[in-house]
Amino acid sequence: MEKYIVLLCLLHSCYGVIYNLNATEYDRMPAKYQGDSYDKCHWDEDAVYCIAELRLVSDTPSPLLTMIQEYSAHNTTHFDYTRVVRGVCLTQTCKHYYNGTAASTNDTERGVAIGACVNESLSKDYGLKVNVIRYFCNQPPKEKPLDTLDYAMAVVCLVIILANIAGTIYEPFHGKRKDFLSRFLVCFSIRNNWRKLMSPVGRGQDPRMRRLKSIHGIRTMSIALVIMSHSIIACVAYIDNPIYFESLYKTPSLKVIFNGMTIMQTFLIMSGFLLVYNSLLHAEKNQITLMTFPKYIILRWLRLTPPYAIILGLTITWMRYLTDGPLWQEVIGNEVFDCRKYWWTNLLYINNYFDDSQCMQHTWYIATDTQLYCMGALVFVLCSTPRSRKIVLPLLFIAGLIIPAVITYMRNLDGTLIVSPEAIHGIFLNEATFNYTYRRGHTNLAGYTIGLSIGYLIYHWQKKGVDMTRFRRYRLGVPLLVVLGTAVVYTASIFFEDVPRHSLFIRVIFSSLHKPIFGLIIGLGLITFIFKIDDIVRNLLEWQGWTVPSRISYSAYLVHVAFIRHFVSYQTTTWHATFVLIQQMTVGFVLASFLTALPFFLIVEAPFGNLVKLLLMGSPREKEGDNKENGKESPPKKMLSDSEIVAIEKIVPLKTLREILSDGPKYENSRV
């Protein structure tokens, strides 16, 4: 037995991975991030400051380099210390190696000077040398010239602002007029859009829509968690104590955060559910034909694109002038370049299939959701019978299980997206798992199919009057769903443990089942909230305070990464990460995103949403006016409390109840 133990120990030592270092050994390594003072460098008018990524090498066998390589080999929770980042002021620190000036553009000369300058210090202190991998240099901040796109975007923004001013002034005096110009201006009335934003959930809608109030709570909490998880990008940029960040991976309470990328399945499930549920309600008064499908797609594109295009346009143009720092080119400049090259992929919602683009990377979800929405709309239109749905939906779900498993097997990927320090540092640009199984539309098929199926189930249970109150005896199990969902997310932490990489079999199984299992838990939770089986969690999610942040969540999602990128690009020196500072940063990004999203919603998203309804669906006021001209008064809206609605539902069919309470549903295909 002792022989086997010794053999295992020898095999483990030969594996060439060091999982932990004590403080003394860790301090022997060169710093991961280090740099000269950016501000002092630019006191000189001809200053040249460069950020360089360098590979540590040695001309002779080096125990120190071997230790660095073995410690860096555990790349799931460790930084790659064989690649160091240095900020170098060529015209001051390295002036004996560099004879150029800010006006000189000889990149080869700069690269040689950087390597020689860094080699001097590393050779003396550590006995190591470096090879220059890449670098980018900037000069003292100066006024950047405006181009045609800058002027064009300024004109677009000016027109939108003037339309808002005109609509806001016009609406109180002439807002009830029925001509097109009046209705057009009212679309841009900030007062009118504010009233809609603050209106109670479900007012004037089908009473069944009021059962969806919990979605606002789910959406708000989820988007806040997404912004917080993206804030990690700022936490690893240019820190002087990366070992502290590595230690966070071992903190049990934070493992859920590092594994929290699964939370995006929540949005896909809600999107699929709302697509089917709202469409079934709409079908009660409207015929569904093949021509319905292109209408769905056009309506969605028109609703999502205006605010998206405005943020994209600002990213390409004016946002590049907001900050200047040593990391500007890597964090802002590359995104601007890619957005000017790949903007069309974003507006066609196919950017999640272009892996070499940094243009608004977080919008992969919008592209994925749109692609799955098109698939779901096609299924809804073509599968008009229960029999066809019972065949198609299970097949789609099975395909959703098989596709990521096959891709994981063929490409030898990880079982889940591993939020490693180096992946965060590189903004996941070259992460194979992120590109091939995380953000593709076809690899998220299972979760969306769960949402579609739940939409059909809930609608038909409500229509048949299925008594769900008998399940209230199990209401204490609903809070356990929250615990179970958290536990499912937590299971991904197996890929962060201090062990060799898991077998391909485990990774394939995990890739296939992890997201669908989490999706089933979310779907079951939606059912319990809509049918009011639970009171504890449902009351929390139905709190009226979630409504406004939920309605502006799309705008918040669009703008939040801009704050993170500009924060990173503005850093002029390394910073010392602490738990308090990280908390302040993440909460600050969430608050900044929602505070910015509020005026953006009122000025851009809501007006263009109103305009789409005006152009494609007509105006409710116009229809009301037509009724009066024909001698018919529009039926008054009657508002009842939820308890009154539940009581009436027991004796009045839901379809009749809808006709009594509402003058017709007003639907949006992916929002409540």
Automatic annotation (TrEMBL):
Ranges for domain Acyltransferase: 213-599
GO molecular function terms listed in the Swiss-Prot or TrEMBL record: acyltransferase activity, transferring groups other than amino-acyl groups
Superkingdom assignment: Eukaryota
Signal peptide bounds: 1-16
Region of interest called Disordered, as start-end residue ranges on this chain: 621-641
Spans through the membrane: 151-173, 218-239, 259-280, 301-321, 364-384, 391-410, 445-462, 474-496, 508-531, 580-604
The entry's keywords: Membrane, Signal, Transmembrane, Transmembrane helix
Key word Membrane present: yes
PANTHER family registered for this protein in UniProt: ACYLTRANSFERASE 3 DOMAIN-CONTAINING PROTEIN-RELATED, O-ACYLTRANSFERASE
Full protein name: Nose resistant to fluoxetine protein 6-like
Organism this protein belongs to: Spodoptera frugiperda (Fall armyworm)
Taxonomy of the source species: Eukaryota, Metazoa, Ecdysozoa, Arthropoda, Hexapoda
